[in-house]
Amino acid sequence: MAHNVTVGIDGSAPSAAAAEWAAQEARRRGLALRMIHVAGTEADALERDLGGGTALPGRVADLCDGIAAALPDLDVTCEVQPGHPAYTLAAASGRAELLVLGSRGLGGFTGLLVGSVGLRTAARSQCPVVLVRAAAGPADRMPGDTRVGDVVVGVESDQPCDAVLEFAFQQAADRGTGLRAVESRTTTHDAYATRAPVEQAEIREAMAAAEQLRLEDALARWREKYPEVRAEAEVCPWGAGRALVEASHGACLVVLGRRTARHPLAGPHLGPVVQSVLHHAHAPVAVVPHG
Q1: Of 139, 144, 158, 189, whose CB is crowded by the most CB atoms within 10 A?
Q2: pLDDT in tens, 6-19
Q3: What is the tens place of the pLDDT at every residue in 117-168?
Q4: Residue 59: pLDDT band by 50, 70, 90 thresholds?
Q5: Closest Cα to residue 128, out of 157, 150, 106, 161?
Q6: Do residues 171 and 150 make contact, with C-beta atoms less than 8 angstroms apart?
Q7: Distance (Å) of CA 264 to CA 90, 123, 268
Q8: Residue 92 and residue 125: Cα distance in Å, rounded?
């Protein structure tokens, strides 16, 4: 059974930010924090050759000790596992309520802005994954920092996903914040170029109103379930990636959905919107798998 928040750590700055974020989330949920360092990077090999053996590398051990000291009421375990980081962490997600990663790090986490390990893990995880960038900081820092923004969630109102919306509303409720449901407007600027200008404007306004109403309807059940959450519906005239990146300014978390593979031969996949937001968002990003 899922009974912990798991975080992948490697001693880097984003790894430390992810560990802090995960620790606060575990504390909020009343769960244990499981910290996993996947051995196998060049840095690990060097430290092992210098006498480190199979124990936690010094930089990782310091991070674990720091978290345990800062939150003594939290059940914290630290472990080293062999293997490829993406596959090992994805496997660990099967026993976690949430998996947290730094968006860039040393060794296996190096690559694109998010990192190839982060992308591969997010595409394979069995539970929601949160990627935290060091510059963005954790959603709730260690005691003393009261900065909290809204939760932003990407929505497709014609096929809203219950798993994604429930995760987003629950996160907002837990943090005592508002929620911004953002949808990209599908109407193109030249869709009615053959019509008169006045008629074009009237049609666009009517379609925009219909899209806004559809989004409001998609939120209705969740507003009723979470009456304490101030939820705003926002239909943007931009592409989904840009709209969500813009909305991430000042947010405490951005929530997106990832459809799991329905065909046995289909590999794990992150869509272009999810990848764009992961690379450019100014806040931690949660990717929620759903059928």
Answers
A1: 139
A2: 999 988 888 899 99
A3: 888 899 999 999 999 987 544 444 433 334 469 999 999 988 889 999 999 9
A4: confident
A5: 161
A6: no
A7: 18, 15, 10
A8: 8
Distance CA 43, CA 107 (A): 7
Side chain identity, residue 29: R
Two tokens, residue 165 = 């919306």
Instruction: Give the domain extent around 44.
Output: 4-132
Where among 132, 163, 181 does a domain terminate?
132
Extract long-range pairs of 20-23: CB within 8 Å, 24+ residues apart. Answer: 20/67, 20/138, 20/141, 20/142, 21/100, 21/130, 21/132, 21/138, 21/139, 21/140, 21/284, 22/98, 22/100, 22/130, 23/67, 23/70, 23/71, 23/74, 23/76
**CA distances to 141, 187, 197, 202, 240 from 209, in Å:** 39, 12, 18, 11, 18
Tokens describing residue 9: 């750590």
Indicate if 86 and 173 belong to the same structural domain: no
User: One-letter amino acid identity for 186?
Assistant: T
Q: List the structure tokens of 191.
A: 């869709």
Q: Find the CATH number of the domain harbouring 273.
A: 3.40.50.620
Neighbours of 210 (CB within 10 A): 12
- Helix or strand or coil: residue 247? helix
